[in-house]
Amino acid sequence: MPETNRILVIEDSLPLATLYLEYLKDQHLHIKHVDTGAEAKRVISDNPPDLILLDLKLPDMDGQDILEWVKNEGIPSAVCIITGHGSVDLAVDLMRLGADDFLEKPITAGRLRTSVHNLLERSRLEHLVQDIQTTFERERYEGFIGSCLPMQATYRIIDAAAPSKATVFITGESGTGKEVCAEAIHNRSPRKGKPFIAINCGAIPHDLMESEIFGHVKGAFTGAAAERKGAAAQADGGTLFLDEVCEMDLELQKKLLRFIQSGRFQKVGSSKEEAVDIRILCATNKDPMEEVNAKRFREDLYYRLHVVPLQLPPLRTRGDDILAIAQQFLLTFAEEEGKRFEGFTPEAEVMLRHYDWPGNVRQLQNVIRNTVVLHDDILVRPHHIPPPLDTVLADKPATRYRAETEAPAAAEHSGDVSPVPASTTIRPLADIEREAIEHAIAVCEGNIPRAAGLLEVSPSTIYRKKQTWEQDAVE
What we know:
Elements (H helix, E strand, L loop, with lengths): L5 E5 L3 H10 L6 E5 L2 H10 L4 E5 L7 H10 L5 E6 L4 H10 L3 E4 L4 H28 L3 E2 L2 E2 L3 H13 L6 E4 L6 H10 L8 E5 L5 H9 E2 L11 E2 L1 H4 L4 E5 L6 H13 L1 E3 L6 E3 L3 E6 L3 H6 L5 H7 L2 E4 L9 H17 L5 E2 L1 H9 L5 H15 L4 E2 L16 H18 L14 H15 L4 H8 L3 H16 L1
Parallel strand pairs: 1-2, 1-3, 3-4, 4-5, 8-15, 8-16, 9-12, 12-15, 17-18
Antiparallel strand pairs: 6-7, 10-11, 13-14
Helix pairs in contact: 13-15, 16-17, 17-18, 18-19
């Protein structure tokens, strides 16, 4: 067992407590003994142990009171009751109150070791499951929405990097949320509450970029009618975010490197140096190493900035995060526009889920806003969604199967029925039905409720048919 496991023995009999310690001395445990309930509460409050061995009869209070207090306070310690007054009814009552095990005196060494080992192992597994659940239940994080594995990895990097002073180099396709990521790092850092200043290096002309970052004095160049404070000075004490940093002019890159190394800069047109305390975050939608190899980005600046790399995943790789983000946009825009939209039909969800989203979250935002502005309904339907998403369903096998199976019925009702060519092979309806269901399940990546929605049947129908097919295969 790991040496970090801590056990608290609450026993008023010193000989018995000494015996328990002797039984467990070779188990690599840190064991503490107390003989009163009051002292036990103090120790537990200060540093909750992994396991409590609790005698029911104490001089100042009943052990059951301590058990109830531990559970009511939400203390994450396993509790094993030890008593010389055991009965089945008492054991049941204590288990209902939250006791994890029950030992009746006299206790053998083997029984005690087994119980301790099992309780500590169960506690370890429970904590592991809780940690995993906590990780995967983070559906929202700062300005992000999403619980997929790539985003959970992003959240963990932000958690780890934010408290430090290290420069974070964020990469990702356009529209993946690089500025949202930078703000999340700032908000999770000790600089929260201080300025967060963002500059898009690709949106400012090269001849004005130096002034934007470092400022200028009056008369420094044509049009400089007054002294101006740059982003570096505005961000003093906080964070300066340089978006699309690879677009920066090579000469300015040289000055930026010197500024990062020294924390000092000169305004354009000034000979006076100024010092600031800022944290640099930067981002690009390009491959920075390719830019270095192409001599468009200084290698020394790259290695100065590339301390903690963080790559944001494209939206097309984020699975059902697409639907969660779309739902949030839908509700927000519907409220802004006074529309009734509340959700998406299964077909519309398939369209969103299977589109490639070259513009990522920014494109998704625009698509949902377009849908809300131009239409009004309770649910978003495929015909509400603008191009180029209208081609998605046409590429899906399940949709083709629905069209093929619905077309004959439509023709029959119209009265315009063409004779079936003699060469046409008539296939059993059960085979066609099975293929349609299997294709729908494949399109929906195993999500049977969503496949059922596309096929307009109950999910229980699909489950029942799958069970029948599996039984037929066995027979």
